[in-house]
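[User] At your convenience, examine this fold.
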Amino acid sequence: MELLSGLPESIRHEQIDFLSSKTVRNVISNGTLKAEKIHDRQVIGENLETLLKRWLDEGDEQCAFYLGQIYFEKEKYNEAWNYFRMGYEKFNDQKSKFQLGIMLYDNLVSKDVTKVSNPQAKACEFFKEIMTLDVQIASPVDQRNLVFSAAFNLGRAYYQGYGVCSSTEDALRCFLFAANNGDSKACISAQTALGYLYSGPEICDLQKAFQWHSDACGNGSVESQAVLGVMYLYGIGVKEDWDNALFCLSEASARGSLYAKANLIYFYYRRKMFTNVCYLASRMVTCDNFMTSECIQTFQCRAMSMACFLYALCLKSGKGVQKDELLANQLFSKVCTFTSRIVLHSYNWFVYLTVIVSSSYCYNFSSFSQIGQELNVLKNKINSLHFVSFNFLNAFH
């Protein structure tokens, strides 16, 4: 499915509390470190590695993981691997095992160091073993979060077919397990992934897709909030509701979602609020660091393509802004640049459409009749699963 394929092919470590970049804070607050060892936090911050190595020599089992995490964050992967391996093999630390799986899956360490011939398969084996840990209410929170993170990562591996045989059924099983209670980032990510999975051709249950995105949104997922806005806007899996669409898109946009902002721009375009269109789009098209967000990169490129396209339409016709055909043509060309970064699947119809229409404007075609053949081909690709209805075309006549 195109939506889930937008997720990174490599599995990055989840920034749940005990794997966050706040290693110093975690070491200081960790209950396994005796209070009398901590005299001055600044001194500890400046001499953390030395202190951790000393405490490790004194038998503090947690220090192997924290040393591995420090080197991991410094991108000293060979050193990180050695400490994570020590934490897992010597102390049976499951957090270290999880990080070993991450490093194997992402090929962060050479096979000469790991001595593993198929690192992705070994990583998935680690994730499967972690999933067998207890996740009952009485279990430690760290352990529960670890299990759900492993399940989410394994679900992506099953869907993408890396390290395991591709299986939508197994991916669904892992995502459902990870989405158990929504009390960690991995659970919320799994709920969002389920929303995408249920909206695809493999399963095709838009009502369930809407429900999972609603759950993820309620737990704080900005990505699902943006998708809900689009579903409300076009009546996908739910009755069309422009009030809810405006609310979801505005909120997600304010929280940093470019995909939501692009669809909010289109919402204003449909309402003929061209001043709002130009105000938002003009700021969005000049954004240089849009790929730094955690959101799916495919959606980021699509969002920039939409913003450039709609702003160019306003510039070309002088709606909401002073007419500027030169800048409009530059933006139409920019649309093609952004869309070239996106793999064209049958469900990427909006991207395909913007390429066709933008090209027609660049070459001064006077109407859609000259590209009718392309649009007829495109129509055959459209079904109820798309997050943008074909009524989008009506805005340009």
